[in-house]
Amino acid sequence: MKIIDLGVGDARLTSDLLPVLRELRPHLTEELFREVYERGHDQGLRFTAGYADDGACVAAAGWRIVDTTSCLRKLYVDDLVTSQAARSTGVGHAVLAHLEAHARAAGCCEFSLDSGTHRTGAHRFYLRERLDIVAFHFAKELKPLEG
Hints:
Layout: E1 2-6, H1 12-24, H2 30-41, E2 46-51, E3 57-68, E4 72-82, H3 91-105, E5 110-113, H4 120-128
Parallel strand pairs: 4-5
Antiparallel strand pairs: 1-2, 2-3, 3-4
């Protein structure tokens, strides 16, 4: 297993990582993914891919390091997905460990992510990985202003 941070312009972002990411975010087209990453990179967005021994990309993570008043500095995981075929093979654990190492190296005092309430399998995984449920995440969908 190999975990690789993919930089801007790396062709593997769309050829390898995006198909796995779309298992979690099916609305992402290649064009939309490029647009989001182009804007998000300036905000700290980075992507990491997990590869199986046969060279297939089987995990994708989107993450950023942010400074906040609540915990000062944290690594926040925007997206974390292991392909359906590769679940329970250790790749998710390896990607989390890789990201936690980034967090520690950057002086973060927290590692956090949100997970949809319907993703109970993911919640079991996060709890096994010693992540705690520490907050509720509230959201409100905003419609574009007319006019």
